[in-house]
């Protein structure tokens, strides 16, 4: 998709706004809705316009467009970076010819280089707070070995290539916090199923215990945005209430952000959505 300059026909970004990348996705829409409901100024950045935001608040482009990201970040007080490309490789890896992946074609340019562009935009625009969306896949090895619950101090044991990119995201956030003084929070999000994952989720023993509802996602990111003070760098988890077993220890999440989940997955929940993250 060709990038378009979302600012060429509209005023410059509002002052003190919150920039949300991946704002048209499943979690992105929930986050935007929660922020807008609390009358917070929001600019969305995605490949398509974001429902719920006016044309002047919708910036369309890729994560490879560093200059457009820079414009979107100017005047922002916080960036919520949700945009990412999922892993399309088979896991465990198949035999040839079923052994391909999208690491070089999509994960590197979007999830690794794109995250670098986001952090550079934050640095150049002097954005004081950045929230980076990571994933529970970065500690998948601990989960498979039964070393649960995991907490904020649990070291990475990534599932596969997508998760490796998220390990980079967490490390990059720590480096920028330390070197450039910004407050960075990396959140290992629970499972908010995308379309096509419905049956996988229902068959998963762990899924209901790491479920993250869209409404709880909105509550979490709102809590982080409104937190008066956060550690300079931290890693936390965000899920809804577990059904029968705690997988992610969210004590640190509640301590530093005040977030407490409201929802819990049930068999009647529509886990699919037409708005994938």
Give the termini distance in whole angstroms. Answer: 18 Å
What is the structural class? alpha/beta
Specify the CATH class. Answer: Alpha Beta
The name CATH uses for the topology is Rossmann fold
Helical stretch tally: 8
How big a fraction of the residues is strand?
5-15%
- Rounded to an integer in angstroms, the radius of gyration calculated over CA atoms is 18 Å
Number of domains: 1
Looking at CATH, the homologous superfamily is NAD(P)-binding Rossmann-like Domain
Largest sheet: 7 strands, parallel
| Overall spatial form | globular
Number of strand segments: 7
What is the string of helix and strand elements? Answer: EHEEHEHEHHEHHEH
Low-confidence parts lasting 5 or more residues at pLDDT below 50?
Answer: 6-13, 272-277
Helix content range: 25-40%
Topology:
Elements: E1 17-21, H1 26-37, E2 42-46, E3 58-60, H2 66-73, E4 76-81, H3 103-124, E5 129-135, H4 140-144, H5 161-180, E6 183-189, H6 198-203, H7 214-226, E7 233-238, H8 251-257
Parallel strand pairs: 1-2, 1-4, 2-3, 4-5, 5-6, 6-7
Helix pairs in contact: 1-7, 2-3, 3-5
Describe the structure.
With 277 residues, the chain is α/β, with parallel strands linked by helices. It has a single domain (17-257), classed as 3-Layer(aba) Sandwich (Rossmann fold), CATH 3.40.50.720. The protein has helices at 26-37, 66-73, 103-124, 140-144, 161-180, 198-203, 214-226, 251-257; strands at 17-21, 42-46, 58-60, 76-81, 129-135, 183-189, 233-238. Strands 3-2-1-4-5-6-7 form a seven-stranded parallel beta sheet, sandwiched between helices. β1, α1 (26-37) and β2 form a beta-alpha-beta unit. α3 packs parallel to α5 (161-180). The longest helix has 22 residues, at 103-124. The protein starts with 16 loop residues before the first strand and ends in a 20-residue tail after the last helix. The model is unreliable at 6-13 and 272-277 (pLDDT under 50).
């Amino acid at each position: 998709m060709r990038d378009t300059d979302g600012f060429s026909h509209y005023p410059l970004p509002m002052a003190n706004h919150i920039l949300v990348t991946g704002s048209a996705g499943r979690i992105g829409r929930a986050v935007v809705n929660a922020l807008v409901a609390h009358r917070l100024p929001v600019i969305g950045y995605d490949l398509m316009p974001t429902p719920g935001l006016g044309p002047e608040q919708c910036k369309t482009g890729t994560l490879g467009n560093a200059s457009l990201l820079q414009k979107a970040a100017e005047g922002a007080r916080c960036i919520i970076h949700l945009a990412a490309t999922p892993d399309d490789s088979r896991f465990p890896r198949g035999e040839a010819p079923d052994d391909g992946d999208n690491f070089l074609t999509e994960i590197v340019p979007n999830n690794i280089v794109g995250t670098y562009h986001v952090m550079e935009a934050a640095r150049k625009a002097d954005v004081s707070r950045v929230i980076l969306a990571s994933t529970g896949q970065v500690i998948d090895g601990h989960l498979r070995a039964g070393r649960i619950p995991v907490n904020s101090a649990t070291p990475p044991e990534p599932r596969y290539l997508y998760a490796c990119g998220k390990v980079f995201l967490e490390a990059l956030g720590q480096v920028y916090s330390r070197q450039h003084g910004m407050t960075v929070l990396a959140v290992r999000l629970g499972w908010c199923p995308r379309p096509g994952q419905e049956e996988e989720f229902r068959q998963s023993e762990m899924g209901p215990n790491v479920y993250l509802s869209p409404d709880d996602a909105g509550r979490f990111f709102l809590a982080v945005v409104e937190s008066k003070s956060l550690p300079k760098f931290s890693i936390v988890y965000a899920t809804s209430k577990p059904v029968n077993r705690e997988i992610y220890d969210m004590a640190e999440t509640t301590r530093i952000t005040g977030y407490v989940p409201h929802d819990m997955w049930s068999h009647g929940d529509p886990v699919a959505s037409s708005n994938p993250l």
